[in-house]
Amino acid sequence: MNIFKKHTFHIPVLGLGYTLDTPIKVAPLGISSVISLVDDALMEQLREFYSKQFNLPFQAISEKVEDFRAKRITSYLNMVDDIVSKKVADLKKTAFDKGGELEKYIGMLPSLTDFTKKWNLAEKSKEVKDDLMHWIHNHLPIGDIDVNIMTKLDKTNYKGGEELPIEYNDAHAALRGFANSKLTSSLVLSAGMSPRLYSYLEKFDDFFPDSEGNIKKKIILKVSDYRSALVQGKMLAAKGLWVSEYRIESGVNCGGHAFPTNGVLFGPILDEFKEKRDELLTTCQGVYTDALTKKELSQPAENPEIKITAQGGVGTNEEHQFLMDHYKMDGVGWGSPFMLVPEAVSIDPTTLQLLADAKEDDLYFSGLSPLGVPFNSVKGASMSIQRLEYAKEGKAGMPCTKQFLKYNTEYTDKPICTASRQYQKQKLEDLQALNLNAQDYKEAYDEIIEKECLCVGLGISLLEAKNIEVKPTDKVTVCPGPNLAYFSKKMSLKEMVDHIYGRTNMLDDRHRPHMFLKELGMYLDIFKKRIEKFMKSPDDKKELKQLQSFQKNIFDGIAYYNELFKEKKKEILDEIEQMLHKNPSIKTEL
Description:
Blueprint (H helix, E strand, L loop, with lengths): L8 E3 L10 H5 L5 E5 L3 H14 L14 H26 L7 H7 L5 H10 L3 H14 L5 E6 L7 E2 L2 E2 L6 H10 L6 E5 L4 H7 L16 E6 L2 H12 L5 E7 L16 H29 L12 E5 L5 H9 L5 E3 L15 H9 L5 E4 L8 E4 L3 H11 L28 H13 L4 H12 L4 H12 L27 H8 L14 H20 L6 H25 L4 H13 L8
Parallel strand pairs: 1-2, 1-10, 2-3, 3-6, 6-7, 7-8, 8-9, 9-10
Antiparallel strand pairs: 4-5, 11-12
């Protein structure tokens, strides 16, 4: 009996803290989401909070404990699994209670027809009710409790001044924490390829088929193009590791760090995946089967399959269905709009209101990240206000307490963070010595002090939402994608899900560009800034070549959209022309 369809969306990872407990809230309702594994200290605080709330035993894991980072992560994930299991069991016990959690579950499903018929019949027939209850107890879909590791966040750690083995690096320890947990779910790997981390996956049995051919812990790759997916998929398959899902993210992104392409637009990228899906599957499958044979491991119970999903900038049911129907996606990620749904994420009231009030000009592509990667942000967040006040007082930079983003060795032997006071003090002294003109000095100064303490900032809102005490100096960083500009009020979980499936409309009444055009506009802005910078040093041949490629990719993408929308979406084509007219720099002769 298959009486209703599973959800066709998931909630991606949002910052370090915003979705840290999202599975507890939504997994029992059949909705999948992703936890960040960056901040083990934050997980420890939240484990204590929920242990008290659910009367669970709690034993703190201090930094003095051997392998404390991995053990904290394992303990937190096990607790989340326990709580979700308890909530699901309670839901099943009260399945036919009016106004219960199952009714809430049913009310959010993408298609209600078949289940509604069964539900109505169950009120009249004991046999149907028993049959339905049996199905609910054994087959009710529960949302996945997936986890995310940014492969770049693999800082080397030290003890007593001595460098620890690579297994104790941040990403390696996080991987071990997940691998040792009892979760049956997926690891989402993002932020690029990491051969040494991929090799470390081989040390854990849960990523390989068991004696019955089942894989307890699956792998999801977040990718930005087909070539990257194929290269990484084959690399992992050669180790006997199967990538079960390729999660394609647009340049607009779901918030947080963005990894824009060199002008290659989302539509053409999706089209390539659609056309080459079978090639990706069969190529990796052959390599995978051979690798398992060489390792003398069990083959999977069924032929390996892949899912291909998309996320980044989706804002309407029409766009959601277009991705599903035209590009044959297996699911769609909805990120930033969920920042306005406290039933799904943990966010303090002040920050929630800041996001609800934010318009297009308030949401911007920033240089806040110490990683040097573009970062989505919003004007007016409390951490940004504090950062500027520190700089104005002559104390640019921030205390580096959590140290997850220590990568720069410009002034030190051991890496430090570019948002730290230690780094910015030295950098500003060097800047002063250059004797630049006022305009060039200001631009360089602003770029230095723009770096922000994401390690603290991306977790504070979670703590404030739970009324967990924070230091007065700890402020909030928030990282919504630009798509949030068109959602302007706090929403219930049901309202958000109904919006995704087209049963209601939660957008405000302002014009909202199609998701593909929002990305195109972002790339036009990027190109304009790069051209302006290039004009100051036009002998940079490497950058010239990159700009020529960027320009060609943009025009190839526009040609693709002209063909894609010529029949039914003439207004999109008109908007493209208006965008090009407003951004003449894209037509610069290179």
